[in-house]
Structure formats: C-alpha cells, structure tokens
Design brief:
Elements lengths: L6 H31 L10 H14 L5 H14 L4 E5 L5 E5 L11 H11 L5 E6 L8 E6 L7 H47 L17 H56 L5 H31 L8 E4 H18 L3 E5 L7 E4 L1 H18 L5 E8 L3 E8 L15 H12 L3 E7 L2 E9 L1
Parallel strand pairs: 6-8
Antiparallel strand pairs: 1-2, 1-4, 3-4, 5-7, 8-9, 9-11, 10-11
Helix pairs in contact: 1-5, 6-7, 7-10, 8-9, 9-10
Length: 450
Amino acid sequence: MKFFRSLLAKYMLIIFLAISIVQLSYFASAAFIFGIGKTDFSSEVLRENEVEKKWHTEAKSIKSFTDVAVSQHFKDWQKLYPKSSMFWVAEDGTLLTKVNVKEQLPSKWTPAYTTKFIKERYGEDPFTVIAFLGQDESNGFIVFEIPREVFNPPLKNVYEQYGAFVFFGVIAIILFFIIVSFLFFRGIRKRLLHLQEAMEIRDVDGLPIATKVKKKDEIGQLEQSFNRMVCELRESKNREQKEEQLRRELIANLSHDLRTPLTKIRAQSYSVSKEVLSEDGKLAIKAMETSIVNIDALIENLMSYTLLTASKYKFEAKEINVIRFAREQMTTWYPVFEKEGFEIDIELHPFEKNEWQIDPIWLGRIFDNLFQNILRHASSGKYIGVETESTEHYDAFIIKDHGKGMKNESNAKGAGIGLSIVDIMVKGMNLDWDIESSESGTKIKIKHYK
C-alpha cells in the first residue's frame, strides 16, 4: 500500500495510461479504417508483373473472338479489379468492345496513334498492359488499364487517405501526455514551494510554523518530518526558556545573598581601619576595600545583566540635554581619575541638537561601566579622553584611553559583563557604538544617528 501512495507509482500510472491510450488509439483507428475503407490488410499486395503475365496468358487462351466472349472475359477481370478499364481494338484498327473506359478513344486506330498511345502509357499512370488475342496478331489486341495506386501496400493507401487523421491523433495523444505530466510535476512543485514557505515563515516564538499534510507520498512524509522537527524545536526552546529562567532566578538570588556578607565584611574592614595599624596593615585594609568595591561592582553588573536579558530592567526614555549630562558624569568621575594620576582630556562641544530621547539612568550606567573598565584595564596608560564628534549622519561621544588594548591579558580582566551591559543598553536606546582597540589604546564611540 505504501508503494501505491508514492509519487513513483503515480508517474508509472501516467506512463501506463499513455501507452494504453496509444494502443487503444491504434486499434480504434484500424477498426475505423476497416469499417470505412473496407481495407483488407491480410490480402496479398498486387504485383505488376503478375497482372501483366496473367493478362497475356488469358488473352492467348481465348478461343472465340466474338464480342460476347471478349465482353465476358472483361467482366471476369472487372470483378477481380473493380477500378480497371478494358477495350478491344481489331486488326484493322476498329475500336470494338469497351468496359469502364472513361477517356475519349478514337473509333479507328491508326498505326501512328497506336504507337503514340503505347509511348504515353509506358511507365505512366494508369498501369497499362496490351496483349494480342489468340496465338497471332490477326485478331487484334486487348488493353487492360488500372490505376497504379492499387499496387500500393494497403497501409500506404490508408495513410494517403487517413494520414492527416492519424497525424493529428498522434499529436493529440502526445499533447495529452505532456499536459498530464505538466500538471503532475506542477502539483509537486506547488507542494514543495508551500513547504519552503512554511520553513521561511516564523511564528511569534521565532520558530517555523507546521504545515498541513494532505497526502501520504514522499512529499507528505517530508512534511511530516518537518512538522516533527518543528515540534522538537518548540519543545527544546521551551526547555531552554525554563532553564534560562531558573538560571536568572539563581543569579538574582545569589547576587542578593552575596551582598549581605559583603556588607558585613565592608563594615568590619571599616572598624579595623579605625584601629592603630602598621603601614602594612593599612595597605592590607586598603586593598581589601578596593576588592570589596570591585566585587560589589561585579555583583551589580551581574544583577543588571540578568535583568536586562530578562527584559525586566526598568526603562524610561525622556528627552535630556546629553552635553550637560556628560559634563555632570565627568564631574562625578573627575576626582576618581585625578586620584589615580590620570591625565584627563575633556572636549565636549555642543551638537546641532543636544536633546536625545533616552533613559538617563541607562546612559549613566553606560558611562560608569566604560569609566570603570578604563580604571581596571587601562590604568597603565594613565590617560582618559572624552570628546564629541558631529558628522553629516550622526553625533557621537568618544571615550579614549592609552592602555594596552582589549586583547591584552590583565589580572583584572573579567568575563566582559560590563561591555555586554553597555551593548544591550546602547541598542535598547536605538543608539550605536564602535570599538577600536590596539596596543596603543582603545577608542569607544557612542553614536546617535540624525
């Protein structure tokens, strides 16, 4: 049963039907021709030499040279050859008995006309045989004429009569087979295109949509496999989403739980710093406080990244003056960089339009993460530059350092969560950013397209 549902079986059926139609058409044509033309294909084909030999033989065997005898001889031959014509010319050239003669013949034959008649009939149509009556020439001669078409094979005569019918019949059968094959393959192509369209269309969850299975052939099996794949992908994505949700909840809870002991450690370190300590003790407390600040920043980044990827980080866009905002941010960070001995280069020039529709908290977080990265990873360069750039297509803030570049390995290098947060927030506010980093420093450009 499975084979009979396949495309191969269907196409073999089309071929079988085409062959059957050809055979049926052949037999129908033969029956039509037999019925209309009364053609007997089993009869022997007439041969000119046999007819000529027989005419001469029977002409010699005639004993009575009268009109009655010759007429009877002509009638016997016409029964055998209905399309034939015959006549008798006496020794003196008088035209005597005629049977089925349609052309105008002279009543008196002269030697010149007889010669001309023989010359015109030689090798031409109709086929003509001239024989003397009896054993000598004194009884005159008899003439037998018949169209040369009777000597053609029966199939040739049929083809001449019904050739156009056969030709157009064959053309019709070929066209029928072509049309059926075209419809068959067009149906296959249409179903494949429908399957391709189902593969390209995405549902609300971003996965392909299942297609409707109409038949159980090879394409139907392919559609079923595609539907199974879609179901497996949807189940896999659901599992992945559940696992992702569990992971985010775990990170959020872990971040919250880590902050409690970290706060206690910070309080204890502060208490210890109030005691009388040696220089080494003071340095140790300072290093501890620095580590606590870094850990707190990492926990904050981890929490923010988790909330951002879960689309739960609060976003409130408003129109603000970004030049003023950037100056306020630099005012906050200026003492920090100055304390670390950084050369600070600030060139903030107004844009053509200083108001951007953004979330100030998000933009502030972007500046904080980038400045923290410079302090942690580019402190060896002791340089920070913040400037503006305006082009025909965009306005931008540029933040530069003279560190060893992002490819450089450092003890403070982390997992890159800070820059991942920057990327999510920049794109979330419909901004863009570029990073150029080398051994001589890093330049980050935050762009707002006009």
